[in-house]
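#struct-queue
[09:14] JT: dropping the first one here, sequence first, then the structure tokens:
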Amino acid sequence: MEIDRGGKEAVGGDGAAQRVNDAVDHFLQSKGFRGLYTSLELSLSASDLRDLDIFSKSDPMAVIYLKKKGGALEEFARTEVVMNTVNPVWITKFTINYEFETVQQLVFRVYDVDSPYHNVPVKMLKVGEQDFIGEASCALSEIVTRRDCSLTLSLQNPSVSSGQRLGSITVRAEETFVSRVAVEMIFRCIDLENKDIFSKSDPFLRISKVMEDGMVVPICKTEVIDNNLNPVWKPVVLTAQQYGSKENPLVIECFDFNKNGVHELLGKFQGSIADLDKLSQQKLGANFYRPSSVNHDHQKILKGQLFVDKFSEKIQHNFLDYISSGFELNFMVAIDFTASNGNPRFPDSLHYIDPFGRLNAYQQAIVGVGEVIQFYDSDKRFPAWAFGGRPANGTVSHCLNLNGNPRECEVVGIEGIMSSYSMALHNLSLAGPTLFGPVINKAAELSAQSSSSYQNKYFILLIITDGVVTDIQETINTIVRASDLPLSILIVGVGGADFKQMEILDSDNGKRLQSSTGRLATRDIVQFVPMRDVAGEISIAQSLLEELPGQFLEYMRSKGIKPLY
């Protein structure tokens, strides 16, 4: 759990989306070809980790790598950071594709995340700057051939003498099943114990599933509600994949959040989904209990109670349901033509076109994102704009058709964007300032037209820029207005500018944007990534697109839009 950022956010209670690659697998099967994989979900935990901190325990994070042919490692996924423990049980789950005919080597590396990085999103952490605890490796087939599909591996570290124990990591695999059943619940508590001296407790719930072997696996946690002994949390959505059967026992624990990661237990409740449904129907509260510190078989009944204010079953369609039924993702791009990029004729310019074919930062972002999205757009005609540039004998424009055609903003394919970009560098003078408002308004206009005509389209605007936006408040106002439309905005920062102000636009801290009139954004539609922070770690496309299926689903569900079949 990340302090204040990830630590106070909800995890796993939103019916999370499947990976985009599922659509590729479905396409192959629909055409009569063999599918790509059998889908497995991996859970990770660790025991007795070597403690690298002096005044507290380690703050561990695990990173999974795939070992490719030739031995090269490719990062696959990361867990959240769990604070102040040497026995972490990570909530984040990973979907991996099991292929019988190949040996799929996995490498698990565990790091202690240092305090200065606790407010940095996990995806942006540079593992080379963290303390390496140890690693272990195995083949995926070694896990699935175990009776309980669980394998414990000892951690190794070449720089530590062989006699020192580094701890172990346990990997559990479950075969996923395509269930659309989900339950939505609103939890409320009353009369919780106050653990704080100068204020009230800051409670959150953690829900775990009890496995057949008795192991307790966390499946979600709510957000933290500050200073409240009678909290009401945002709705929690649990899929059948998460909770198993309706009779499967669940453990619900209520904690008082502490920044040091040592959260104090306010009470526990054990029951099934069926029990929670019954509580909701009868409008009754269930008393929390706390295990006795002396006799663990004895339970102390507490005053605090758990209520289920809402319980509803629903069909929870996933990203693949929409894509495979005919919904499309429409790609749009806007490129920064301000003077701070440098003269395109010189090699130190961010817009320099290398004669030997090496892509500049703008080209890398266009190709990286465009090559993924283009498969979900049937006509492959992409609107493309320049902003901050001045045409010959003209004035500065903040939304100019990249192809130079005043009547048509679309180009054909990624090649069309690349060639129009090269041509625009010859036809436009770099100017300024850096304004996002006009291009976001144009993208919102196209999205609104599609929405009003009930087209099965969702729009993705890629903005590539080298500097901090000048019209920050107007940009926020525009994003808030657009948050109710079928639109996501991906922003890539290139070059060496200080992009800290830009992080305001990306609501990764859980706080929705607010316009100058006080209106809150309906949802988070922006993902911002400085390119320098992902180079060499994971691809720019992965960093930008990982939140997209979730944003897509949030829009469809909020509007009650169902797949086309």
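[09:21] JT: and here's the second one, same format:
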Amino acid sequence: MKFLQFSVLPFLIVILSVSGANLARHPHRDFLRCLSLRIANSSTITYTQNNPSYSSVLNASIHNTRFSTPTTPKPYAIITPRKTSHVQSTIYCSKNHGFQLRIRSGGHDVEGVSYVSQVPFVILDLVNFRDVKVDTKNEVAWVQSGATTGELYYGIASKTQTLGFPAGICHTIGIGGHLSGGGFGILGRKYGLAADHIIDAKLVDANGRVLRRKSMGEDLFWAIRGGGGNTFGVVLAWKIKLVPVPPVVTVFTVNKNLEQNATKTFHRWQYIAHKLPRDLFTTVWVMKVNSSQVGRKTVQASFKGMFLGRIDVLIPLIQYAFPELGLARENCTEMSWVQSVLYFGALPIEPVEILLNRSALPRLSLKAKTDYIRQPMSETGIEGFMNMFLEEGTDFAITMIEAFGGKMDEIRENELPFPHRSGILFESVYIVQWTNEEDAGLCINWMRRLYSYMSSYASKSLRGAYYNYKDLDLGTNNINGYTSYEQASVWGLKYFRNNFKRLVRIKTMIDPMNFFSNEQSIPPLLSP
């Protein structure tokens, strides 16, 4: 079988047939003319490079400054729609005037795919699609794709202290991208992924049709819940099922460095964490810190947890199941569920209005990779892993190791496109950041060596990866021309395993000309 990534010829035929040969000489001007004919006052939502607000709009939600340099390719225009019809018109004009469309909700794409392209492109920025409507009576909410997780959490918490949503801990992540890739967070062991709780959606397809769950069909509805964004259409809003949380939860942190048996404690944690009651989520954050010896560094493992209950229940539970941790009352704090999100985000837990601040976190350059671990690492393997954090280029490096099990063990691999479920001990998210561009090569090379080191411990049959931390090192599509199934499956099987084939079939059905495409979007089947 062969699959299509992007074919220039069909688009040129459409362009020439619609507007004549003159269009090919002035695609930029004609794109704007197209928008102005279809959208009243289109200039108020359109930012081109000669607009004084262009740079501020472009950079407003770029969270990886690695893709905000003078040499980074820039979009011809940024469209910030306010209505569904604006989205439909942007799709129409982009398709008919030869521009690739990149869709941005929160700008956290770690490879910049939502706002960078190597071919002429425009950005559809959903920043104005950020409404959150919470219905506590029916325990549901409608949230638009341009809202952040923080805005969703705040919207829930402002109405109830006994409902939550199992998405990620970073409060500035855009809902559109997060739900499109799955979405795992501190409620994951109790309730599964964020995508597991999507019950409806509003999508605009490549032909401008507005589809809901019933009209799009169950195949497409399955695909958009974890099959990746900017692939099947523009999802404008999601209807989600909220989940019960107690009014008081308990969080804790216990720090152990190499001199305090961090290696042995983590070795034991591997055997326990996925078996703990599902009301308890635990994670280990590994990073380089200052040693007690002046001028020296060590490696610290921060054992963190969130328990859906009180301290008095948590302490004996941990002392029985994991006495090696040495959890004490002074390590624990009781708070609301929404405050626990801020706690894990390393932010003050009050005021909770910080959840609405899209600029609360520092923006650095970064590279990320992920793994899913099914077998415990040896103490020697853990020691080697931790010692790598003492090398150069690791001042802003962190690995977040998140326990699975619980609800995740009960969900079938093909329930949604996200396949990493039963049998996974933990997910590892490796991140390295840097402040000076001259350090980019050093830091990225370190990350790649760390990933290579972990190959001995990752899933043996097929090394998995999490689509929400895209990694173009795994492979890419051809941005111009065809991408075969074999080429795309190099990266696609790592993210989606056996679900990749079904995603390709659905892509072929909904977007056969591959209008929605990027370096790691699902490619359609090439017509014979």
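[09:30] RK: nice, looked through the second one.
[09:31] RK: The chain has four domains: 27-125, 132-244, 249-335+364-454, 475-527.
[09:31] JT: good to know. Residues 1-24 have pLDDT under 50 and may be disordered.
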